[in-house]
Amino acid sequence: MLIAGTVIADPETVVPDGAVVVEGTTIAAVGESDALRDEYPDHERRELDLVAPGLVGGHVHSVQSLGRGIADDAALLDWLFDAVLPMEAAMDAEATRAAGFDRLGTLREGQRADVIGLTTDRTRATPVHDPRSHLVYAAHGDDVVFAVVDGRVRYDGGEHVGIDADAVRERATREAKRVVEEAGIDTAES
Predict the structure, then answer these.
(1) Could you tell me if 32 and 93 are in contact, meaning their C-beta atoms sit under 8 angstroms apart?
(2) What is the pLDDT of residue 105?
(3) Residues 30 and 84 in one domain
(4) What is the arithmetic mean of pLDDT over 77-86?
(5) Is the dihedral of CA 80, 86, 87, 92 positive or negative?
(6) Residue 111 and residue 184 in one domain
(7) ∠ CA(63), CA(65), CA(66), 5° rounding?
């Protein structure tokens, strides 16, 4: 699949008329749209306004895995301020790669194919002076019109693909209610 649009490949790299090529579960190529169309003429094509990393698991604590076993018996704030934060501050490029942060929020050849496509056809999205700034400060969840997770289309044009969204919502509601009740939390619906 060739996903074309303004590609935000990473925090420093924007390809205005770019594309991402997905083969199987990985990204095969990122670059100029015309060149990739020539190189991959038989790939299914999607045209989107913005193409960005899927940010699957964008809020992660994997950095803490490097410090597993250090000060585990400490109180939470002592552990955080005396062990975790100093360790994170000391992380260099190699440590961030070991924690997996070099793959988070980027579109690069050989990486897992987690890609989103966004529309900018919204009044609040106009004008888009800087696609990176737009993605961070102006884009909303409902601007996402296309999503590929691990190489598989999972959201397309407002519809979930390969997922029973009603069953997911029903299960989430049921489990949330059970957990809230077991915790003894009083809600407005209780």
Answers:
(1) no
(2) 73
(3) no
(4) 84
(5) positive
(6) no
(7) 80
What's the domain count of the chain? 3
93 and 136 inside one domain:
no
For residues 92 and 111, membership in a common domain is answered with no
Phi first, then psi: what are they for 104, rounded to 5°?
Answer: -85, 125
Structure tokens at 176: 């949330």
Got the DSSP string for 117-182? EE---SGGG---S-HHHIIIII--GGGEEEEEETTEEEEETTEESSS-HHHHHHHHHHHHHHHHHH
Residue 59 has pLDDT above 60, yes or no: no
Domain ranges, residue 38 = 2-58+104-157
Q: Which residues contact 8 (CB under 8 A, 6 or more apart)?
A: 14, 50, 51, 52, 53, 107, 131, 132, 135
Going by DSSP bridges, is the β-strand pair 152-156/26-32 parallel, antiparallel, or unpaired? unpaired
* Residue 144 pLDDT exceeds 60: yes
